[in-house]
Amino acid sequence: MPELIKVDARGMACPGPISALTRAYRKAKNGDTIEVLATDPGFKPDVQAWVKRTNNELIELTEEGGVIKAVIKVTGKRG
Amino acid sequence: MKKVLILGGGGGGAILANLLPEEEFEVTVVDRDEYHVFQPGNLFIAFYGDSVEKYRRPIRTLLKPHVKLIRDEVTEVNLNDRKVKLKGGKSLEYDYIIIATGANLDFDAIEGNREILESYGDFYSTLENAEKLHKTLKEMREGRFVIAIADPIYKCPPGPHKGAFLSSTLFERMGVDVDVVLALPFPHAYPSKTISDIIEPELERRNIEVHTFFTVDSIDVEKKRIYSLEGEELEYTVATVIPPHEGPEYKVEPSEVKDDSNYLKIDKYTCLIEGFDDAYAIGDCTNAPTSKSGVTAHLQAEVVAERLQGFDAKYSGRTNCPLITDGMGLFIISDYDHPPIPVRLSRFKRLLEDLFVATYWDAIRYPELWQPIFHAYFEATSPAKLGERGW
Asked: What pLDDT, in 10s, does the model give residues B279-288?
């Protein structure tokens, strides 16, 4: 069953949000979705670079009221 | 007399024990080891060939005579009943408890990690393993020495960088053609972009091969390859992989005070364990959102010592992590309100670090004498003061 993994990295300074995402990614499997909330402005370019490097899919990247929300579909994990 | 029980005789535990006035407190320290280890010494053993003896002292010799020391292992802490059980069968009671038992390194979490530790040693876990790595490196004539990380939360954020810089100098001194490879889970060459921009030219100058977004997933010891969570692989001749860390493995009641990595959940300013007013945790065993480093444990110990004496002290989150090369150094300075400030590598700062190493045992044994000097330093170099101007 694909799962939705939520990561709340609000208030964490760079590279806290990416580190939190990496830790969630270790437990994730292909088909899962990871949703990260962050307030560090550096997270936007970082998550874009991360998705590219790891061959995962960025479904949503939005910013509202200072909170960045990234939704990632996990597709890049080795079997 | 208030009964204070301190679990762990490392930097945080020993400084706190020595700071509490004997007229007011009956202090007991519990530690499973005979020795207190100066952990940065691992680097100097692994890359300079220093002796193990230089970086350890019996805990007893570092504690003031009135501090009681029990050598035993903690098996259970019950914060509700104010009781601690020890492996030897003893049960201890307290008025105040401070947990300072550090982080555990889990070498079995990553496939192949224990094998490479046993084959090559490392510069991270124990003085003996550092000695082993030194022997391993001294035998290298060519190939790739890879330093990699299995989880973004680890002790001493600049540790891997120091390992890369110092090993490149060692290979240069040996006159051998070994490539140094540094693989990191971060988007840049250092967790903080500011610091990354400062050290990148130095990494380049020394031909250290840097891989970003590389979090170790598994190690194939037959093929001598390290695979990352992000989907890449690295070949090695000799490798050392910093393992995932965890908080204390012993039972703590109530269990909700530990997070999902077993770290104790504390108030980041007061160091009080969540939900308690008589239980603190300091140093590497907590979930405080700051670097796991000796300076954190030291400053938190001072805060707790003040609080136990009735003052409203708070830990600012200040870090002062030294990043050194063979001849240069810088300190990564930040606190809860300020990300790392821009700092330059300099010979002077490397000497400051050497000075700190030289004073270490004395600073643990007589924290009250060194306090004014450290405080003057921390004040003069506070992120609020140095800010964007840097240092």
From this structure: 999 999 999 9
Does B231 contact A42 at a Cβ distance shorter than 8 Å?
Answer: no
Mean of pLDDT values over B19-32 = 98
Which of B190, B212, B245 is the endpoint of a domain? B245
Average pLDDT over residues A17-43: 94
Residue B296 and residue B220 share a domain: no
Residues B63 and B160 grouped into a single domain: no
Q: What percent of chain A has pLDDT over 70?
A: 99
Of B303, B246, B294, nearest to B270 by C-alpha is B303
Same domain, B16 and B149: no
Phi-psi region of B231 (alpha: psi -120 to 50; beta: other; left: phi over 0): left
Q: Are residues B231 and B270 in the same domain?
A: no
Q: Report how far residue B270's alpha carbon sits from residue B263's, in angstroms, rounded to the nearest whole number.
A: 16
Chain-chain contact of A15 with B186 (C-beta, under 8 angstroms): yes
Cα dihedral B244, B246, B249, B253 sign: negative
For residue range B352-378, what is the model confidence (pLDDT) as tens digits?
Answer: 999 999 999 999 999 999 999 999 999
Size of interface A-B (CB pairs under 8 A): 57
Q: How far apart are CA B49 and CA B52, in angstroms?
A: 9
Domain limit, last residue, from B245, B262, B296: B245
- Interface mutation vs chain B, best among A32, A51, A53, most B CBs within 10 Å: A53
CATH fold of A4-73 reads Translation Initiation Factor IF3 (3.30.110)
Partner A contacted by B186 (CB < 8 A)? yes
- Tokens 């670079």, located at residue: A49
